[in-house]
UniProtKB/TrEMBL annotation:
The lineage of its organism: Bacteria, Bacillati, Bacillota, Bacilli, Bacillales. This is AAA family ATPase. SUPFAM superfamilies: P-loop containing nucleoside triphosphate hydrolases. Residues 51-200 form the AAA+ ATPase domain. InterPro entries: AAA+_ATPase, ATPase_dyneun-rel_AAA, CbbQ/NirQ/NorQ/GpvN, P-loop_NTPase.
Protein backbone atom coordinates (compact mmCIF):
# COMPACT_ATOMS: atom_id res chain seq x y z
CA UNK A 1 0.00 0.00 0.00
CA UNK A 2 1.29 3.45 -0.88
CA UNK A 3 1.21 5.52 2.33
CA UNK A 4 2.50 8.80 0.97
CA UNK A 5 -0.27 10.91 2.49
CA UNK A 6 1.30 14.23 3.44
CA UNK A 7 -0.58 16.97 5.25
CA UNK A 8 0.21 20.58 4.39
CA UNK A 9 3.04 21.72 6.69
CA UNK A 10 0.95 24.30 8.58
CA UNK A 11 -1.59 21.60 9.44
CA UNK A 12 1.12 19.25 10.69
CA UNK A 13 2.36 21.99 13.02
CA UNK A 14 -1.12 22.65 14.32
CA UNK A 15 -1.70 18.94 14.96
CA UNK A 16 1.55 18.71 16.92
CA UNK A 17 1.34 21.99 18.83
CA UNK A 18 -2.39 22.09 19.52
CA UNK A 19 -3.39 18.51 20.24
CA UNK A 20 -5.54 19.72 23.13
CA UNK A 21 -6.88 22.77 21.29
CA UNK A 22 -8.67 21.53 18.14
CA UNK A 23 -10.42 24.91 17.73
CA UNK A 24 -7.20 26.11 16.15
CA UNK A 25 -8.27 24.30 12.97
CA UNK A 26 -10.96 26.91 12.39
CA UNK A 27 -8.37 29.34 11.03
CA UNK A 28 -7.61 26.89 8.23
CA UNK A 29 -11.20 26.81 7.02
CA UNK A 30 -12.18 29.52 4.60
CA UNK A 31 -15.58 31.23 4.65
CA UNK A 32 -18.16 28.73 3.45
CA UNK A 33 -16.19 25.73 4.67
CA UNK A 34 -17.62 23.16 7.06
CA UNK A 35 -17.06 23.90 10.75
CA UNK A 36 -18.37 20.86 12.67
CA UNK A 37 -20.32 21.19 15.93
CA UNK A 38 -17.56 19.19 17.61
CA UNK A 39 -14.05 20.00 16.41
CA UNK A 40 -12.95 16.45 17.32
CA UNK A 41 -14.79 15.39 14.15
CA UNK A 42 -12.42 17.47 12.04
CA UNK A 43 -9.31 16.36 13.94
CA UNK A 44 -10.32 12.70 13.66
CA UNK A 45 -11.12 12.95 9.95
CA UNK A 46 -7.81 14.69 9.20
CA UNK A 47 -5.91 12.15 11.28
CA UNK A 48 -7.55 9.16 9.55
CA UNK A 49 -6.99 10.54 6.05
CA UNK A 50 -3.38 11.46 6.80
CA UNK A 51 -2.77 7.79 7.70
CA UNK A 52 -4.28 6.58 4.43
CA UNK A 53 -7.57 5.40 5.91
CA UNK A 54 -10.95 5.79 4.20
CA UNK A 55 -13.64 7.63 6.14
CA UNK A 56 -17.41 7.15 6.06
CA UNK A 57 -19.44 10.24 6.98
CA UNK A 58 -22.67 9.07 8.54
CA UNK A 59 -25.57 11.35 9.42
CA UNK A 60 -28.93 12.85 8.49
CA UNK A 61 -29.62 14.50 5.17
CA UNK A 62 -28.65 18.15 5.01
CA UNK A 63 -26.25 17.90 7.96
CA UNK A 64 -23.29 18.98 5.84
CA UNK A 65 -21.57 15.72 4.90
CA UNK A 66 -20.74 16.83 1.35
CA UNK A 67 -19.54 20.20 2.63
CA UNK A 68 -17.39 18.36 5.17
CA UNK A 69 -15.83 16.30 2.37
CA UNK A 70 -15.18 19.44 0.29
CA UNK A 71 -13.55 21.11 3.29
CA UNK A 72 -11.24 18.11 3.82
CA UNK A 73 -10.34 18.22 0.13
CA UNK A 74 -9.44 21.90 0.54
CA UNK A 75 -7.39 21.31 3.70
CA UNK A 76 -5.34 18.61 1.96
CA UNK A 77 -5.01 20.71 -1.21
CA UNK A 78 -6.47 17.76 -3.12
CA UNK A 79 -8.94 17.89 -6.02
CA UNK A 80 -11.86 15.56 -5.39
CA UNK A 81 -13.63 13.34 -7.93
CA UNK A 82 -17.20 12.42 -7.05
CA UNK A 83 -19.47 9.42 -7.53
CA UNK A 84 -23.19 9.85 -6.87
CA UNK A 85 -24.60 6.42 -6.10
CA UNK A 86 -27.98 5.18 -7.29
CA UNK A 87 -29.55 1.87 -8.26
CA UNK A 88 -28.29 2.54 -11.80
CA UNK A 89 -24.63 2.78 -10.74
CA UNK A 90 -22.54 0.32 -12.74
CA UNK A 91 -18.91 -0.47 -13.50
CA UNK A 92 -18.75 2.16 -16.25
CA UNK A 93 -20.00 4.86 -13.89
CA UNK A 94 -17.20 4.01 -11.47
CA UNK A 95 -14.29 3.03 -13.67
CA UNK A 96 -14.93 4.52 -17.12
CA UNK A 97 -15.96 3.35 -20.58
CA UNK A 98 -14.71 2.64 -24.08
CA UNK A 99 -15.59 4.84 -27.01
CA UNK A 100 -14.69 5.16 -30.68
CA UNK A 101 -12.42 7.99 -31.72
CA UNK A 102 -10.06 8.86 -34.58
CA UNK A 103 -6.28 9.00 -34.74
CA UNK A 104 -4.83 10.22 -38.02
CA UNK A 105 -8.08 9.39 -39.81
CA UNK A 106 -8.08 5.87 -38.39
CA UNK A 107 -10.88 4.76 -36.10
CA UNK A 108 -9.60 3.47 -32.75
CA UNK A 109 -11.11 2.44 -29.43
CA UNK A 110 -10.25 4.78 -26.57
CA UNK A 111 -10.86 4.24 -22.86
CA UNK A 112 -12.26 7.25 -20.98
CA UNK A 113 -11.37 6.98 -17.27
CA UNK A 114 -14.16 7.25 -14.70
CA UNK A 115 -13.85 8.96 -11.30
CA UNK A 116 -12.26 5.96 -9.53
CA UNK A 117 -9.50 5.43 -12.11
CA UNK A 118 -8.95 9.16 -12.50
CA UNK A 119 -8.59 9.76 -8.76
CA UNK A 120 -6.25 6.76 -8.37
CA UNK A 121 -3.94 7.73 -11.22
CA UNK A 122 -3.68 11.36 -10.11
CA UNK A 123 -3.44 10.67 -6.37
CA UNK A 124 -6.56 12.70 -5.60
CA UNK A 125 -9.54 12.25 -3.28
CA UNK A 126 -12.56 10.18 -4.29
CA UNK A 127 -15.95 11.07 -2.80
CA UNK A 128 -18.70 8.42 -2.93
CA UNK A 129 -22.02 10.03 -2.01
CA UNK A 130 -24.99 8.03 -0.68
CA UNK A 131 -22.93 4.87 -0.85
CA UNK A 132 -25.83 2.74 0.41
CA UNK A 133 -27.97 3.66 -2.61
CA UNK A 134 -25.86 1.46 -4.88
CA UNK A 135 -26.83 -2.13 -5.63
CA UNK A 136 -25.02 -4.56 -3.29
CA UNK A 137 -23.27 -6.25 -6.22
CA UNK A 138 -21.77 -3.01 -7.60
CA UNK A 139 -19.45 -1.65 -4.92
CA UNK A 140 -17.48 -4.89 -4.37
CA UNK A 141 -15.89 -4.02 -7.72
CA UNK A 142 -13.71 -1.54 -5.83
CA UNK A 143 -13.00 -3.55 -2.67
CA UNK A 144 -9.32 -3.75 -3.65
CA UNK A 145 -9.27 0.02 -4.06
CA UNK A 146 -10.59 0.49 -0.54
CA UNK A 147 -8.24 -1.84 1.34
CA UNK A 148 -4.46 -2.04 1.84
CA UNK A 149 -3.88 -3.02 -1.81
CA UNK A 150 -5.14 0.27 -3.27
CA UNK A 151 -5.23 -1.61 -6.57
CA UNK A 152 -7.78 -2.60 -9.20
CA UNK A 153 -7.65 -4.56 -12.44
CA UNK A 154 -9.59 -2.46 -14.92
CA UNK A 155 -12.08 -4.92 -16.50
CA UNK A 156 -12.32 -2.78 -19.64
CA UNK A 157 -8.58 -2.66 -20.40
CA UNK A 158 -7.05 -5.39 -18.18
CA UNK A 159 -4.68 -2.72 -16.87
CA UNK A 160 -3.62 -3.09 -13.23
CA UNK A 161 -4.06 0.34 -11.66
CA UNK A 162 -2.34 1.14 -8.34
CA UNK A 163 -3.24 4.38 -6.60
CA UNK A 164 -0.69 7.16 -6.51
CA UNK A 165 0.27 8.68 -3.16
CA UNK A 166 -2.38 11.08 -1.86
CA UNK A 167 -5.31 9.02 -3.11
CA UNK A 168 -7.98 8.39 -0.51
CA UNK A 169 -11.69 7.78 -0.25
CA UNK A 170 -14.42 9.67 1.59
CA UNK A 171 -17.91 8.19 1.47
CA UNK A 172 -21.22 9.44 2.83
CA UNK A 173 -24.31 7.57 3.94
CA UNK A 174 -27.91 8.43 4.84
CA UNK A 175 -29.47 5.55 6.73
CA UNK A 176 -33.08 4.45 6.63
CA UNK A 177 -34.15 6.16 3.41
CA UNK A 178 -36.26 4.60 0.67
CA UNK A 179 -34.00 2.86 -1.84
CA UNK A 180 -31.08 2.40 0.55
CA UNK A 181 -29.64 -0.97 1.51
CA UNK A 182 -27.52 -1.89 4.56
CA UNK A 183 -23.79 -1.83 3.85
CA UNK A 184 -22.27 -5.29 3.92
CA UNK A 185 -19.66 -5.87 6.61
CA UNK A 186 -16.81 -6.33 4.13
CA UNK A 187 -17.43 -2.84 2.78
CA UNK A 188 -18.12 -1.17 6.13
CA UNK A 189 -14.91 -2.60 7.61
CA UNK A 190 -12.89 -0.71 5.02
CA UNK A 191 -13.89 2.64 6.57
CA UNK A 192 -13.39 4.65 9.72
CA UNK A 193 -16.89 5.90 10.57
CA UNK A 194 -17.50 9.50 11.62
CA UNK A 195 -20.97 10.56 12.78
CA UNK A 196 -21.93 13.99 11.43
CA UNK A 197 -24.70 15.62 13.51
CA UNK A 198 -26.73 18.71 12.73
CA UNK A 199 -25.10 22.10 13.25
CA UNK A 200 -26.89 24.13 15.93
CA UNK A 201 -26.70 27.32 18.01
CA UNK A 202 -23.95 29.84 17.39
CA UNK A 203 -22.34 27.70 14.70
CA UNK A 204 -25.59 27.61 12.75
CA UNK A 205 -25.95 31.37 13.19
CA UNK A 206 -22.44 31.88 11.80
CA UNK A 207 -23.23 29.51 8.92
CA UNK A 208 -26.34 31.51 8.00
CA UNK A 209 -24.38 34.76 8.16
CA UNK A 210 -21.57 33.47 5.92
CA UNK A 211 -23.55 31.27 3.50
CA UNK A 212 -26.78 33.19 2.90
CA UNK A 213 -27.77 36.74 2.02
CA UNK A 214 -29.86 37.12 5.17
CA UNK A 215 -28.36 39.88 7.35
CA UNK A 216 -31.08 40.82 9.84
CA UNK A 217 -29.87 39.40 13.15
CA UNK A 218 -33.31 39.10 14.74
CA UNK A 219 -34.58 37.06 11.78
CA UNK A 220 -31.45 34.90 11.81
CA UNK A 221 -32.05 34.15 15.50
CA UNK A 222 -35.60 33.04 14.67
CA UNK A 223 -34.32 30.67 11.99
CA UNK A 224 -31.78 29.24 14.46
CA UNK A 225 -34.63 28.65 16.94
CA UNK A 226 -36.75 27.07 14.19
CA UNK A 227 -33.91 24.71 13.34
CA UNK A 228 -33.48 23.73 16.99
CA UNK A 229 -37.21 22.97 17.32
CA UNK A 230 -37.18 20.91 14.12
CA UNK A 231 -34.17 18.89 15.27
CA UNK A 232 -35.86 18.22 18.63
CA UNK A 233 -39.02 17.09 16.84
CA UNK A 234 -36.95 14.71 14.69
CA UNK A 235 -35.29 13.25 17.80
CA UNK A 236 -38.74 12.69 19.32
CA UNK A 237 -40.01 10.93 16.19
CA UNK A 238 -42.49 13.66 15.30
CA UNK A 239 -40.78 14.57 12.03
CA UNK A 240 -38.62 12.84 9.41
CA UNK A 241 -34.99 13.90 9.08
CA UNK A 242 -35.76 15.72 5.82
CA UNK A 243 -37.70 18.32 7.79
CA UNK A 244 -34.61 19.41 9.72
CA UNK A 245 -32.26 19.63 6.73
CA UNK A 246 -29.74 22.44 7.21
CA UNK A 247 -29.51 22.78 3.44
CA UNK A 248 -33.25 23.48 3.23
CA UNK A 249 -33.01 25.94 6.12
CA UNK A 250 -30.29 27.91 4.33
CA UNK A 251 -32.50 28.07 1.23
CA UNK A 252 -35.29 29.49 3.38
CA UNK A 253 -32.92 32.10 4.82
CA UNK A 254 -31.93 33.21 1.33
CA UNK A 255 -35.53 33.48 0.18
CA UNK A 256 -36.45 35.42 3.33
CA UNK A 257 -34.39 38.32 2.00
CA UNK A 258 -36.97 38.88 -0.77
CA UNK A 259 -40.22 37.28 0.46
CA UNK A 260 -41.83 36.91 3.91
CA UNK A 261 -40.09 34.37 6.14
CA UNK A 262 -43.20 32.20 6.51
CA UNK A 263 -43.50 31.85 2.73
CA UNK A 264 -39.78 31.15 2.46
CA UNK A 265 -40.16 28.29 4.95
CA UNK A 266 -43.22 27.05 3.08
CA UNK A 267 -41.32 26.83 -0.22
CA UNK A 268 -38.02 25.53 1.13
CA UNK A 269 -39.10 23.13 3.87
CA UNK A 270 -42.82 22.47 4.22
CA UNK A 271 -43.72 21.83 0.58
CA UNK A 272 -40.98 19.17 0.32
CA UNK A 273 -42.69 16.95 2.86
CA UNK A 274 -45.18 14.26 1.84
CA UNK A 275 -47.05 13.72 5.10
CA UNK A 276 -49.77 16.25 5.90
CA UNK A 277 -49.21 15.69 9.62
CA UNK A 278 -45.59 16.86 9.31
CA UNK A 279 -46.55 19.81 7.12
CA UNK A 280 -49.12 21.01 9.65
CA UNK A 281 -46.66 20.59 12.51
CA UNK A 282 -44.11 22.89 10.86
CA UNK A 283 -46.78 25.38 9.77
CA UNK A 284 -47.90 25.73 13.39
CA UNK A 285 -44.32 26.05 14.56
CA UNK A 286 -43.65 28.73 11.95
CA UNK A 287 -46.76 30.68 12.91
CA UNK A 288 -45.65 30.65 16.54
CA UNK A 289 -42.13 31.86 15.81
CA UNK A 290 -42.68 34.28 12.95
Amino acid sequence: MNTNYQLPENMVNILEENKNNPDSFVELIRDGGYVPPNMDLLVDAISALSMGKNILLKGPTGAGKTKFAETLSHLFNQPMFSVNCSVDLDAESLLGFKTLTYEEEKQVIEFIPGPVIHAMKHGNFLYIDEVNMAKPETLPLINGVLDYRRTITNPFTNEIVTAEGGFNVIAAINEGYVGTVPLNEALKNRFVVIEVPYIEGEQLKNLIQTNTKLADEATIDLFVKLSSDLINAVSQGKLSEDAASIRALLDACDLAVLIPSKRAIQRSIIDKLDEEREREFIKNLTETLF
